[in-house]
């Protein structure tokens, strides 16, 4: 059986790509194995901007970087590897990981500007005739691969995208501080203008900021919100339907754009992560604030607009459905099986996806990206997102009644049961019912949980 799995994986990774853009999804596809394969094939340079990754031998990426073949290339100077690293557990932990990576010959820097590098991308062999780019919503971690819903794009021989991502890396590299010894320094500095490919484009919110030495400051108000404005333009372009799978839905301009779409008859399906659920009693008392200018910080900061789409009456309300990826009756456990993709599909034909969390902090506290993919050219990539959304939208809904029955039995008969379950795509009302069942029997719901 183990041999069969190895043969299947080898066949998967060896299959010729029929498109220059391939999308793989967590928790189903061997994303880290594919990234490791591309690293093994790198000839001259690898530049990574990474919010987080696992630095253990269990990771296929780390095993490849430690391999004799790659270490020989690094030691000889044939292959130069650089990384801008953030680390989500804080700087002391990130520094420890970074120093370990430097022992592998990887030159590490931190952006110490008050902004977090939330990218998850790699540019390979930029200065060759076949550059490659890897980018997506997923951190290169084993937990993400096994438990989260994510996507990663593999873009082969895409010169225009390589040029944009390399320019972004160079910008951040020049504004970052060395962690230990300078092992590589400045390479790939010459980034010639590449022809624009309308079928595959990327927007970076680094355009929101001014870079001066190691300082990164916000530009004036009217120059900002570059990622938010890109999403708004995408939503306003819809002719038939919008399918949205995003960790968060916390931007007032995007909310307003969805209202406009619903009012003109566009069918909208929105799926968000479990932490976007707010209890029924809270939702009852919260009101949508008045906003003369939706691009003001106060109109988006600390807001969750998904439940307003669900509860408020507005023109076209019947065209909007909201579901939540839900997997634990303990609301604090929302990280364990996250819906961590952040993508929008317009009319089954065009996809916007990337690292960008749809929030004010994503726009102004993080450094992010948003990739646009046109289905006319990249048919298989867009079809992959269509299939992923269809699967997510009805995720394990057939198990809802069985789980509810099991909880009722535990509450009625003073039993214990597991309050964790396989993720389901549920409505606010369906979750309300689960979390209020203890009231029916004058008990605390947690008392029935193992």
From TrEMBL:
Residues 335-362 form the PLD phosphodiesterase domain. This is phospholipase D. One of its GO terms (biological process) is lipid catabolic process. It holds the Pfam family PLDc_2. Belongs to the phospholipase D family. Its EC number is 3.1.4.4. It comes from the Bacteria. It comes from Pseudobacteriovorax antillogorgiicola. One of its GO terms (molecular function) is phospholipase D activity. Keywords: Hydrolase, Lipid degradation, Lipid metabolism, Signal. It catalyses: a 1,2-diacyl-sn-glycero-3-phosphocholine + H2O = a 1,2-diacyl-sn-glycero-3-phosphate + choline + H(+). It is an enzyme of class 3 (hydrolase). The keyword Hydrolase applies. SMART domains: PLDc.
